[in-house]
Design goal:
five-stranded parallel beta sheet; FAD/NAD(P)-binding domain; six-stranded mixed beta sheet
Length: 357
Amino acid sequence: MKRYVILGGGYGGLAIISRLLEGELPSDVQLVLVDRMPYQGLKTEYYALAAGTVSDMDIRVSFPDDPRVHLHYGNVQSIDLDGQIVHFTDGDALAYDHLVIGLGCTDKYHGIPGAEQFGNSIQSLASTRRTYQLLNDIRPYGHVSIVGGGLSGVEMAAELRESRPDLNIRILDRGSRVLSAFPEKLSHFVSGWFLEHHIELRSFVNVSHLEEGVIYNRKEDTEEEILSDVTVWTAGIQPVAPVQQLQVAKDPQGRVIINEYHHIPEYPNVFVVGDCASLPFSPSAQAAGAQGEQIADVIRARWNGETPRLGKIKLKGVLGALGKKSGFGVVGKRAVVGYVPRVIKSGVLWMSKNHFG
């Protein structure tokens, strides 16, 4: 029996399983899905859970109920590529013949003292739950600082405004504008929305360190103290620790370099999907899903003794939410703002939640 182990029940891992289950599996193949929890958490919606505008149940998706998929619950500690064994934090181990690494990402703190301790995360479901508790327990008219003006930071700020209109909310960003990776039109639109909804934007903030209740902004020879009841960290991501520990080639962001068939060149039986993989575009649920489908095609081609034929991955665009009634995004090459992109994002979320229904 050949054991195909998929580490991580996120967008990439589930795309692989879904595509493989569309056809018959060889009689000597066993699929094993490994995850910490018995369901997928829709990571693109963690900002809403942290803000308190959706419940935990709203962003859960059950894993496929199929006798051909074996579920193994555990927290991955390390991966022995040569020994072909996955080790778990509870001392358990799982051998594999073929492996997919789709463990996702964690926060990147850039070596800033106090950032990990005092910068609250929305990268995992567990950390998002803790951040939700802190945000929703803040005294009326308290101060929330969101470090990082990318997509996650912007959505977090907007959703929190909808949940807590009393709070003083600010975004601190190193650059000149929020959403620096997006067209300037979108940045201006979002900035205007924030101004209208009383969210403070602070550019060129150089965070030097964090302490309880204080963020320090280095300004030439002085350091400004920015008081903050709760600080949310959205200033960068990196692959999780087990992937960081792998002794394989990686790109400058720490993501594993893979070949055109999405596997590690030295280990043709080990695929890497999603945020852990070095791809020509930014990490996203859409990219992970598209890549996962291609990995499934490679696996099935190998089963049939064929050479995989893969096309170029083409992403449809990126969508962001500003509360429940407005949004922004890039669809194809077109920048769109307002109610329409918010509706489209809601539709994408609905499909994600009902994929295995």
